[in-house]
TrEMBL record:
Superkingdom of origin: Bacteria
Biased composition (Basic and acidic residues): 406-419
Source organism per UniProt: Aquisphaera giovannonii
Official protein name in the record: Uncharacterized protein
Region: Disordered, residue numbers: 400-419
Length: 419
């Protein structure tokens, strides 16, 4: 905390009445005369705290800090002009005061206000924990501010995304994920998992409701595939049970999830999608032109089924791209991700070196040469490829880095989204 410029900014306000109903300023004058400065400051702090005027409470706490430390009382909220060691001691009290005020805001349910204070002192954890417990509110303005703090400002992106789903719906959640995805890949994957579960619940419920309207016996299958088995009538006349654009987007994102339950639900969504009328199955982006069919093969491979259908299809899509044609490298990057996810690291390493070695790591949406060499323990192959590609630094590092044994723990990471 270097100076008062880092303090949260709010409109100051002060209660005119003390807790006993007496004019606050008269009460302070009386306390100065009867109890001295310490008692007057303590009374001010107590009254402001009781009144919930936490912004003014911060200034009162800083006034007390200056008085206790024997520093000039004005300006009470600034570090400028203070010499050491007084500056350091005051800064400690400054942080303590902000922490206390932030906690008061949290206790009052004012998450956005609390965030501005906790963020100022670099302590986001209390707000993140409060957001985990936050159940929403009928106050639309407050809800919007809380979601902004949680998702856009990064206090707790996963919970913020869940709140978007719960209160604004699937469309808004997908838009948020596309426009401002969490910077942490693990958090992004958690958000995608929440999206999959949300849409699966909605679709499962809608299919059951349609079956009930038709007078059919509604099975207790937990899967959508179980509900629709042998029920082609559900898709007659281009019928559908959930917004197809939402379904397509969710299935596209689903290849990033690593949780087994989320993968199973994503498979169920793709299985439903492939049963839709061809007129509703819009063409996707390479290498997933058939959005539901192609993602279904990929998801099956991730889930532990035979990976060859997905691998064979992706291999057929490989091209020899020009060095400046990034889009043409997408199938190879998707294939590298799949090989990595199913543990075939050496194959991924060779493919990357052959097809993508000309790309810098920042242009890759899959693991790079170094990561794959570490995963496979093949420093010798990294040396070969580094020499061929003219990468002297990685070549020397690969020669000096001892190869890891197959039993050693290696880095783990989900594949990155490429479509």
């Amino acid at each position: 905390m270097s100076d008062d410029a880092s303090r949260p900014s709010e409109s100051p306000s002060s209660p005119r009445m003390a807790r006993d109903g007496v004019d606050l300023f008269e009460a302070l004058d009386t306390t100065i005369q009867t109890g001295g400065p310490e008692a007057a400051i303590a009374k001010l702090i107590d009254d402001l705290d009781s009144a919930g005027d936490y912004r003014a409470l911060l200034d009162a706490l800083l006034l007390k800090a200056r008085h206790d430390l024997g520093l000039p009382l004005l300006p009470w909220n600034s570090l400028s002009g203070l010499a050491e060691p007084g500056r350091g001691r005051f800064e400690e009290r400054y942080v303590e005061a902000i922490r206390l005020v932030a906690s008061r805001y949290l206790e009052a349910g004012e998450i956005p206000s609390a965030w501005s204070y906790f963020r100022a002192i670099g302590e986001p954890e209390p707000v993140a924990a409060a957001l985990d417990r936050y159940a929403g509110t009928d106050d639309a303005e407050m809800l919007g501010r809380v979601i902004d703090v949680a998702f856009q400002q990064g206090a707790n992106p996963r919970r913020g995304f869940e709140l978007i789903l719960e209160h604004y719906g699937t469309c808004s959640a997908i838009t948020a994920l596309e426009q401002a995805p969490p910077a942490d890949p693990a958090i992004q994957v958690g958000c995608i998992g929440a999206l999959i579960r949300h849409l699966h619940r909605e679709l499962h419920s809608n299919v059951r409701a349609d079956m009930a309207r038709r007078g059919w016996t509604v099975t207790e299958s937990p899967t959508i595939a179980g509900l629709i088995a042998g029920r082609d009538e559900l898709f007659a006349d281009e019928a559908y049970h959930v917004d197809v654009s939402h379904l397509s987007a969710t299935v596209r994102y689903s290849i990033l999830v690593t949780d087994r339950d989320a993968l199973s639900l994503a498979l169920d969504l793709a299985e439903y999608g492939r049963r839709l009328s061809p007129r509703l199955q819009f063409e996707g982006s390479p290498p997933f032109e058939r959005t539901f069919e192609d993602h279904l093969d990929y998801l099956k491979a991730l889930a532990g089924d035979d990976p060859e259908p997905a691998l064979s299809r992706l291999r057929r899509r490989l091209e020899s791209p020009a060095e400046d044609d990034f889009e043409a490298t997408v199938p190879a990057q998707v294939l590298v991700n799949l090989l990595t996810r199913i543990g075939r690291h050496e194959e991924a390493l060779e493919l990357l070196a052959e097809r993508l070695g000309h790309l810098p790591d920042q242009m890759l949406s899959c693991p790079g040469l170094t990561e794959l060499a570490l995963r496979s323990g093949r420093m010798d192959r990294l040396a070969v490829h580094s020499r061929r590609l003219g990468q002297a630094v990685s070549y020397l590092a690969s020669r000096l880095q001892p190869a890891r044994s197959a039993n050693e723990e290696r880095p783990t990471a989900a594949g990155k989204r490429t479509d």
